[in-house]
Predict the structure.
Amino acid sequence: MRLSRHFLPVLKESPSDAQIVSHKLMLRAGLVRQTAAGIYAWLPLGQRVLRKIADIVREEQDRAGAIELLMPTLQSADLWRESGRYDAYGPEMLRITDRHDREMLYGPTNEEMITAIFRDSARSYRDLPRTLYHIQWKFRDEVRPRFGVMRGREFLMKDAYSFDLDEAGAHHSYHRMFFAYLNTFARMGLRAIPMQADTGPIGGDLSHEFIVLAPTGESEVFFDKQWEEPVSRYVVDYDDKDALMEGFYNMLAPYAATDEKRDLPKEQKIGGDLKQSRGIEVGHIFYFGEKYSKPMNLRVQGPDGSEVIPHMGSYGIGVSRLMGAIIEASHDDNGIIWPDAVAPYKVGIINMRIDDEACTAAADDLYARLQKAGVEVLYDDRDERGGAKFATMDLIGIPWQIVIGPKGIAKGVVELKRRKDGEKVELSIEDALAKVTEA
């Protein structure tokens, strides 16, 4: 994409109402614009990142054996009355009455709807286990929406729901999602720490949050130092129940993480293996047994012919919230530093002198060759000062920058810059092309 044809409304200064780094940078870099309190339009650059985050989430769900579907944003209040949650959920639920006086709601979550869908289709134990998921917009009417997409009212979420014949099977589904989540966040360049958590309005008796460490995080957390070590991926066999269970408990022992509401053992002191920081929740998983299947009359025939009430779990990832968490964890004074896996473009080309025929010819040729190689490239061909172009590329966080200027072209070289560490090197166009294509 040529920047001269892009819609990229960057800002020089941070808006006065933006309080945290991710909110400031998302506005300045032209990723989002607020349209109402806690509701944002996703501009082209932000939409590209959002789609890449969602794709990684989707790939890891598929790898763990979950099956994708798509449920609507609006739900019938009658479904929530079946489960008993309609009156209990609270004012965060946006309740709506349609023109026929039917009570509806803008879904904050989908336990009731997915239970009804599965209830109408599943008949026997042969239909289990199953895990179904979708990636869909949700709405929770926060009393004080703030921090941009970190605590907005409308948000994009991946929510998955598992159905098993018994508690042991449900725990296996839980363990599968546990490792799928760790791998999801690792692919985005994030080290997410699983933390035992309250179940809140979802319900149940087993729950973990996944926390990304950041100074601006909502919660104070205590964790073992092992969680600071980088990891690329956990190699697991999702069908090996015993290995998954062993890996799950080994990973959480002795102190995977806890929040400030839970007492540390008296002999534990901050220091040594125990660390303290603040963190951002990016995912939450729950096992809640028959909480929804029983009141909503979900029954299947068991192997012996008897009636069985399936055990359920639910698993959420804040897809839009993840963008803010990634920025909080990966930025500097000049702007965003996108991990390669979610960057809107892999390479940014800066033509320092569009009025110089040699520069423009070299930049145009490199742009065409990168596109042909399937590399996502943003070409700054604007009639702007070099300083403005450098500032824009740093602000929006493109991982690789190739700078083409008259002096370099006269010597047959370009400057290749790695955004993550600022390292710069002069290379021939061929070598620069090979470097970024390989990367």
